Amino acid sequence: MPKMAQTADNWETGCAMAQMRIKDIAAEAGVSPATVSRYLNNRPGQMTEETRARIAAVIERTGYRPRAAARNLRSSRTNLIGVILADIANPFSSAMLEGLSASAAARGCSLMTAISGNDPAKEAESLTRLIDAGVDGLVVNTCGGNDEAIAAAAGRLPVVLLDRDVADGGVDLVTSNNRELVAGLVDALASAGSERLCLLTEASDDSPVRRERAEAFADELSRRGLAGEVVTLADGGVEGVSRLDETIRGYAGKKLGLIAVNGLVFLRLTEALAQLGPSLPAGLKIATFDDYPWNHVLFGGVTTAAQNTLTIAERVVERLSERIDVVTTTVGDAAKLAPKRIEIPGHIEHRASTSR
Amino acid sequence: MPKMAQTADNWETGCAMAQMRIKDIAAEAGVSPATVSRYLNNRPGQMTEETRARIAAVIERTGYRPRAAARNLRSSRTNLIGVILADIANPFSSAMLEGLSASAAARGCSLMTAISGNDPAKEAESLTRLIDAGVDGLVVNTCGGNDEAIAAAAGRLPVVLLDRDVADGGVDLVTSNNRELVAGLVDALASAGSERLCLLTEASDDSPVRRERAEAFADELSRRGLAGEVVTLADGGVEGVSRLDETIRGYAGKKLGLIAVNGLVFLRLTEALAQLGPSLPAGLKIATFDDYPWNHVLFGGVTTAAQNTLTIAERVVERLSERIDVVTTTVGDAAKLAPKRIEIPGHIEHRASTSR
DNA sequence: TCGGTTTACGAAATCGGTTTCGTTTCGACT
DNA sequence: AGTCGAAACGAAACCGATTTCGTAAACCGA
Known about the structure:
Two copies of one chain form a homodimer. By secondary structure, chain A is of the alpha/beta class. The first copy, chain A, has 13 helices and twelve strands. In chain A, the strands form two sheets. Chain A has a six-stranded parallel sheet, with helices on both faces. The interface between A and B is large, with 52 and 52 residues. Strand 2 (110-115) of chain A pairs antiparallel with strand 2 (110-115) of chain B. Chain A binds a DNA duplex through residues 21-23, 31-38, 40-41, 45-48, 51, 66-76.
C-alpha cells in the first residue's frame, strides 16, 4: 500500500487521522521536503516570502509537528541536556533544577534528569544512560568517586560541573564564591561579638565544597586572629548530635559562634540546640549556608550565606551551549574551549541570629 | 568513500576511532545486522548460543553502544518518560522526582523533566515540548488550568496524573488517601485534648487536593461533633500571617488545634507563632501535612501526615508502563485501559506537638 | 545582450538502527 | 528416506527527517 492512502485520507473518518510526515506537508504546499525542512529550521538559504507563507499555512492548518527521533538521527543533535544531581532532597538541588529547566527551555532544550542519591555507582550508571540516550551535553553535580569516568565523558561530549569539582580539574565548573561567603559569615559572627568560632561539618561529606569552605574558614580565622576550629560531626543520628551537644556545652558562656557548612548540618544543629533547652545558650550566635525557607523562621531568622542559584543555573546552561555549539560547528577537536572555572557571587542575608 | 574506511581503521591512529555501527559489529562477528539487533533486544527469535557469544564478545571488545536516535526512529519508542512538576521547591515534589527517577531507571527508562512553577502557560508549553520530544508517556503534577489540554494529551499518549486530578477525570490518577490522613490528624488533635480545630489553607491554592482535604476535614468534624472551621490565609506575606495571628489569639485559651494543609502553610504558621511570643500559647496543639525534615525539629517534633512518596512514584511508573505496553502492543485503540484512581495509604507520624 | 553570480528549490543520499519476509538448516516423526 | 515444522539467520525495506549537490531561474553589471 502506497503512503498516500495512509495520510491524505481525512476523507470519511473523523477519527485519528494518521500522523503527517514532512513529505505530506511538502506535497500539500507544492514544494519539496527539503524546502519544508529549510522552513522548519529557518536556514540561511532563504525562500520566497510566498513559499514561506504557503508552508506556514499548511503546517498551521494540519498541526504538523516534526518527529524528533528522525531529526535527531540525521542531525545527531537532540536538544537534550542531561542533568545528574547528587541529592535532590537538598533544596540547593531543587532550586538548581528549576533554574536549569528554565534556562534550557529558553534555548529550546529539554532536560533529562538522573538522581544519584549520593551513590557513586548510580552516578556512573546515570552517566552512561544519559550519554547513551544521546544528550547533547551534561550537567553533573557529582557525589564524588567517579572522577575518571566524568573526565572521560568530558572528552566525548560537553560537560559542565555544578558546584562540585573533580580531581584532575580539566572540566568546566560553575560554583559559588565560597571563600568570600565564608568570610562574610565569619564577619557577621565576629561583628555580633563571637569570640570563638566553629565550622560544623559532617564526616560523610568529603566534597571539595566542604574542603574549600573549611580551608577558607581556617584562613579567615588566622587572618583575623580569631580562635576557632572545624568540628566534624559523626555521621547520622544521635552520636553526631551529642558530640555537637558537648561542643556547645564545652564552650558555653564563652561567646561561641557556629557556622553550619550546609543546610543539613544546620538542621542537626537545630536539633541539638533543642535538646539543650528551650532557649539558646547565652551569647551563642549562629549562621549557616544555603537559604532554606525555614531559615527565615527558626530562631527568629538565621543569618545565611545564600547562593545565587538562578544565576548559577543560567551560566551553566550558557557555558554548556557554548561547548555544544563548538562541537557541532567545528570539524576537528582542535579548537576546543579551554576548561574554565566560573564563580557566581552569592550574598549574606543578615538576620536575627547574629544580631548583637 | 565506502563505509569500511571510516570504521575498521583503528589501524594507525590511536586517536578517536570512529563510532561503530551495528553493521560493523555484524561484520566483525560474521553475522547480519538483523541478528545483532535481535541480540541487542534479546528477541524471541532465539539464536545459537555460539552466535550469541560471538556477538557478545565483539560488543564487549569494541564497547559498542547502539545509537538511541536510530532505534527510536524505527521503533517509535524512546524509553523516555516525561515528568511535569508544578513546584519543585515543595519537598513532596523532590521526593517524588527521586522516586520516579529510581522506578524509571529500574525499567530502563530515563526521565525528561519540566517544571511549571505553578504557571499554567509554562505547563502547557512543557506539555507540547515533551510530547514533541517523543516521550513514551507523561507524568503530570498539574498546577491546574490545563484540564482540556491534559485530557487531549491523554488521548494521544499514556498519561498518569500525580496527586492532583483534572476536572473531567478521564485520566489515571495516583494520590494519597487524603480523607483518612485528615481523619488521622483530627484524631491526633482531639486525643491531645483540642476542643476546637482549624484547617489552615491558602487562598491561592484552589487545587483538588486542598478541596478534598477541606471536605474531609468538615466531614470529620461533624462526624465527631467537634467545633472548627477552615481558615483561608490571604496570599503571601504579612497579611496572611496577621490574619492567622488573629485567629490564634481569638481562640487562645480555648484548647485550639491547628492543621496546616501543606508544608508551606505550616511554615507560615511557624512564622506567625514566632510573632506571638517565645512559647506556644497554652493548650495549642498543631499538626501538618508533608513530612519535611524540619518537622522533626520544630516545636520538638510536629505531628505529621506523611505521604508514601516512594510507593506513589513506583505505582505511577508501573501504571504508566502498563499503558505504554498496551499502546505499543495493541493495534487499534479499542482495548484501552479504563481510567483508574489509585490511592496510596500514607500514615500519621505522632510527635510532641500533639502530646497531651 | 551576454557571461557570471547569487538565490530558490528539488532529487536523492543519508543517518543507524528495526522489522518484515523469505530461505536455509536441522531435528523429529512416519 | 522423505516430509514437516520450527529455529536460526540474512537481504532489503523502512522509519522521517536533514543535508548535499545540482540545476533552473533571477539578478546584475558591462
